[in-house]
Design goal:
The chain is an alpha+beta fold. It is built from 9 helices and 11 strands. The strands form 3 sheets. A 5-stranded mixed sheet has the order 5-4-6-3-7, with helices on both faces. It has a 3-stranded antiparallel sheet with strand order 1-8-2, with helices on one face. Strands 9-10-11 form a 3-stranded antiparallel sheet.
């Protein structure tokens, strides 16, 4: 596990020291699981929790062009150019933003998708997570980073989570120092937003979060599959606190699957409430209807 962490991510000395301590102490590394946070459900199975959320990489999506299109962007690609993506979220937003392009499913891991792009003429470009390309050492393949005006990202995208058993308090204590406070608060807000909407990979839900001073900003949106119907709103909350951490109790507090007892509880509560409030605002404007239709159409495909 430590070798995987060190070889794959831009880790700090603190991260290295924690994993050395865990292994030297004889901790069974099968008690820890490393995930991309965006792949973890907002409600974990009973008995499990996210014990650490590491500092987030660039959460945005990236355009990888076919070699014949070097120097172009999505704006300048010819009409009817085919863009590969397996994400309903990406396709819905990009169909609306770039109506001159066509979008087609592409499946497989990063290696497989890049091979399909390079060795055939089926796609003019594909869309991938910038963080995944960076972690694989393939940043040179990135032709364009898509900002929030083009394509907002998935909940938790770019963040790494360490899942542990909730009852393993000693391990929770050790891994908790890996929490990046800003990433934790942003992701709690995002996960609360998604959970309230009852969303997932089968419907197009997108977010963008930012911390400015003591304010946390959350933008959230839902889309129809073709991007023609959408709702998008932004809200903010104060995450200022007196730096008091959670009182130690037998059952530590989880917020949308995240346990961060070494961080101020009020800031976490405010972040979770922000996500719930924004979701409720969109639901009051018809988000449930948009997502229900999107889910039904996707299931029928």
């Amino acid at each position: 596990l430590m070798a995987y962490i060190l070889s794959s991510f831009n880790t700090s000395d603190k991260t290295i020291d924690v994993f050395k301590t865990l292994i030297c102490a004889g901790v069974n590394v099968q008690n820890l699981v490393v995930h991309s946070l965006k792949d973890l459900p907002t409600a974990l199975p009973p008995g499990f929790t996210i014990g650490a959320v590491l500092k987030r990489e660039n959460p945005h999506d990236a355009v990888v062009l076919h070699p014949k299109n070097t120097g172009k962007s999505l704006d300048t690609l010819p009409d009817k150019s085919v863009i590969g993506t397996s994400s309903l979220r990406r396709a819905a937003q990009l169909k609306k933003r770039f109506p001159h392009l066509e979008f087609k499913d592409i499946r497989g891991n990063l290696n497989t998708r890049l091979k399909k792009l390079d060795e055939k003429d089926d796609f003019s470009a594909i869309i991938l997570a910038a963080a995944g390309l960076r972690r694989m050492g393939w940043e040179s393949r990135v032709s364009q980073i898509l900002g929030p005006e083009d394509c907002m990202y998935a909940v938790g995208q770019g963040a790494i989570a360490i899942e542990v058993r909730a009852k393993d308090k000693d391990i929770l204590e050790m891994v908790s120092v890996l929490h990046d406070p800003n990433t934790v608060l942003r992701c709690i807000a995002e996960r609360a937003f998604l959970r309230r909407l009852e969303g997932g990979c089968s419907v197009p839900v997108a977010v963008h979060t930012e911390v400015k001073g003591s304010q946390l900003y959350l933008t959230g949106a839902v889309y129809s599959l073709d991007g023609s119907d959408s709702l998008k709103e932004t809200m903010q909350t104060s995450i200022a606190s007196d730096n008091k951490v959670e009182e130690r109790v037998d059952e530590w507090v989880q917020r949308v699957g995240v346990t961060a007892n070494n961080m101020p509880g009020p800031a976490q509560d405010a972040s979770e409430k922000l996500g719930l409030d924004l979701a409720n605002l969109l639901l009051s404007k018809g988000a449930k209807e948009i997502l229900t239709v999107a889910r039904e159409l996707n299931d029928a495909r």
